[in-house]
Amino acid sequence: MKLGFICLNLPGHLNPMTALARQLQGRNHEVVFLYSSSANGLPCVPGDDRDPVNENRPEVSKLQGDDALGFAIGLLVQRTEAMLKSMPAMLEATAVDALIIDPIQFYAELAPCLKHLSRFFLEFPFCGRDRFVARGD
């Protein structure tokens, strides 16, 4: 099975996802990171759009509290909007059978649903959550 991973290209998100991907590779699954420019040596397919989260890391690191939260959420919304537009073509081009999506990628799972693509989604739990949330059609 070919598994597509979608997560932020930041160490706190990328490292756990690449660890999971390597475990799944060890079980004979093909893995590819979508919308990532690097995935710790694993195959990746960068998106055509810019990455507002990584582009603005220096600016975000200078903010605190509500200012940082508001700015970061705005960046995530920009990234999600770009992904919603380009993901159906990305999924067709990469021919992934399933997606594993970092839950911080708000509403990213809507793109395949909007195009009526038959996919299975797994939200990878972070921040102490104790279970996976799986949805299939």
Helices and strands, with pairings:
Blueprint (H helix, E strand, L loop, with lengths): L1 E5 L4 H15 L4 E5 L9 E2 L6 H4 L1 H5 L3 H30 L3 E4 L8 H5 L6 E3 L9 E3 L2
Parallel strand pairs: 1-2, 1-4, 2-3, 4-5
Antiparallel strand pairs: 5-6
Quick take:
With 137 residues, the protein is of the alpha/beta class.
List the defining traits of the structure above.
Rossmann fold, disordered C terminus, 5 helices, alpha/beta
Describe the structure.
With about 140 residues, the protein is an alpha/beta fold. The protein has a single domain, classed as Rossmann fold, CATH 3.40.50. It has 5 helices and 6 strands, in the order βαββαααβαββ. A 6-stranded mixed β-sheet has the order 3-2-1-4-5-6, covered by helices on one side. The chain starts with a strand and ends with a strand. The C terminus is likely disordered.
